[in-house]
Amino acid sequence: MKKILVADDLPKIVELIRVTLEDKDYKIINASNGKETLRKARKEQPNVILLDVVMPKMDGFEVCRQLKKDPLTKEIPIIMLTAKGQEVDKQRGKEVGANDYIIKPFSPSTLSIKVKEILA
Amino acid sequence: MVRDSSGQIVGVLFSGEDITERKKREQKLQESEERYKVIAENSFSAIYIFQDERFKFVNSAFIRLSGYTKKELMSMDYLNLIHPDYRDMIKKTTEQALTGDISNLPREPDFKVIRKNGEIRWVKLMPAVIKYTGKPAIIGNVIDITKYNKVKETLQKTYDELQKTNAQNEQLFASISSIIISVNENDKITQWNKISEKTFGIAAKNIIGRPFHKCGIHWEWAIIAEGILSCRKKKRIVRLNDVRFTQANGNKGYLGITINPIIYKTHRQPGVLLLGADITERRRAEERLKQYQFMVESAYDAIFFKNLKSQYVIANKKTLEAFALPLEKVIGKNDYEIMLNKEEADKNIKDDCIVFETGKSKKIIKQMTGVDGKKRWFQTIKVPQFDDEGKIIGLVGIARDITEHKIFENLIKEQNEQLKKLDQMKSEFLSTAAHELRTPLTSILGFSEILLKRELDKERQNKFLKIINEEATSLANLINDLLDISKIESGQGFKIKKAPFKLREVIMKNINFFKSQTNKHNFQLNMPGDLVDIEINADKDKIYQVVENLLSNAIKFSTQGGKIIISVEQANEKVKVSVIDNGMGIPEKDFPYIFKKFYRVENTLTLGIRGTGLGLAIAKHIIESHGGEIWAESKIGKGSTFSFTLPIHT
What we know:
The complex is a heterodimer of chains A (120) and B (650).
Chain A: E1 2-7, H1 11-21, E2 26-31, H2 34-44, E3 48-51, H3 60-69, E4 78-82, H4 87-95, E5 100-103, H5 108-119
Parallel strand pairs in A: 1-2, 1-3, 3-4, 4-5
Chain B: E1 2-3, E2 9-11, H1 20-42, E3 46-51, E4 54-58, H2 60-66, H3 70-75, H4 84-98, E5 110-114, E6 120-132, E7 135-144, H5 146-175, E8 179-183, E9 189-192, H6 194-200, H7 204-207, H8 221-234, E10 238-246, E11 252-262, E12 271-278, H9 280-298, E13 302-307, E14 312-315, H10 317-323, H11 335-338, H12 342-358, E15 362-369, E16 375-386, E17 392-401, H13 403-453, H14 458-490, E18 499-502, H15 503-517, E19 521-526, E20 535-538, H16 540-556, E21 562-571, E22 574-580, H17 603-606, H18 615-625, E23 630-635, E24 639-647
Parallel strand pairs in B: 19-21
Antiparallel strand pairs in B: 1-2, 3-4, 3-7, 5-6, 6-7, 8-9, 8-12, 10-11, 11-12, 13-14, 13-17, 15-16, 16-17, 18-20, 21-22, 22-24, 23-24
């Protein structure tokens, strides 16, 4: 079973992602702040991380940068899933090593396809 | 006695003759000679009789003239008395005369004689040839003309000197660079030098001899005529300045003239000598100088000249004003002697030294203590000054009080900073607003898609619909906030619909709402019993919005949970509501800005605390629109208290 780490501080968004991916054979793990995301990524070694940017304690860009630097986590694909939709934000996502960048609001089916692709 | 041939006396022979007449003649002659002798002896002229290479007679005047005794004279060679330069001439003429040839005998020859003591005297000789003891002799009358000759010599010398002086005067007259015009007692021009010709364009030959008042010069004749009159009357020099005239080239110019009286013994009216100069250039230079002086004096800047000792040589009005000192207390003094702040004086003088050493201008912007003791900003430029040989002689300083400019500059800088910050805040706001809009939209669109595409049980349908509803409400609130801020920005403000309502109801409604949203926080309402039913006349919805914002902030900034106290008090005619949290607090530097629109406390982003930076700005506007006040108190790590007041009876 593939593990997906959903890093978002808003329970409603976590719920939405959970529902979006629930009929697939995925295990959804949740982290509600940046530091928790780092810890869980190292510990759980998820197959993909869906990473929000605006989170308490450490923002998603910094989390991504650290994960991509850490040999333990650098291979884990990261999809930035964020409401920060400006070009400059997308550019920053690329710089810190994100594999994909999905802007909120997103279509659940699109997210489902993207996750499927990246896990294939 | 009669003797024979042997010589023996043989007889006596008497012979006689009547000599009475002869004796009478002889006596007469002798008397006459005696008379002449007496006359000659007592004459002031030196008289002598010369015969057979010797003096036969010398009178006492001759003895005094020669310095010899009579005896010496009678036996000496007469030529020893004659100066060597004249001996030949005297010897020759004397010899000729004694032979009876008096044709070459000079009449009253002047020659030099040598006295016994070697002294040389000029004499004039009046000789004549007479019979003395039956033979030709020369009688001479000698006059000592030494004194006369000396006078003559002096006169000659004086004459020569005079000639020389005249020549020099002529030269001087020609070379003098002044206008020289002589006018005689009859008002005729007698002198007209080259400079006069050049200045007026009239040749001397055309003007000398003409009446002065008709000389043809275009000038202020009335002034000159009056000057001449005054000069003649008072016999004193009259000076005329700035007499306007027409130059030789036709241009207008100015003359400086002195009219000097020439007093003749023989004339009743003095002549006049006009000495003048074309002072047009000088006057123009003076005018320019005056203009420069005026410029310097009326300048907005302090302008001064300092010598190499850093002493003020020139200081304009502004400089004196800057020191609040009169001119005499500045001129000749240096900054140490003038300025109260010795450190500033020291800096000034060091700057002067740099200019003197480098020979280059120096621009200085610095603060100086003004006369009122306040610091003022001055921008000074110090420019070295050189003499004709390129030697540095001092500096010219121009100092401008730029205090106002500096204040303005700082204000602009501050405003620019604020604008920059505002711009940055707006950019951040746009990004945040977009983010805050996207977030509820994500749930709305996401869950609605799931509801549409999947078959879900009723419970899940309701759950997702509730989420959609909440997020739509949140979105609506956000849009309302944006509209509110837009109204505030445009100056339109809100429409406040006042109506009496119970404050407690509004607070409790909020508490209950937030209790349903969070289980980390405890809410406590401190409201004295007498205030429980207090009513205020205000816009209920807007006051609800304010309390909601303050509670929402209290929750957001105390992420770990904790107690949130809502305190209500009455102060005079106002009711004070405070929302107190024990959260992270607000950094002091953010305090001035927290009620400004778009402003978000710096660490909110890194901490992931959501918000648009509009809530407090809107709250402030709402409270102030009701005539109340809103403020905050906070300590980092201890928490914050946000309070507002509202009038009770309004």
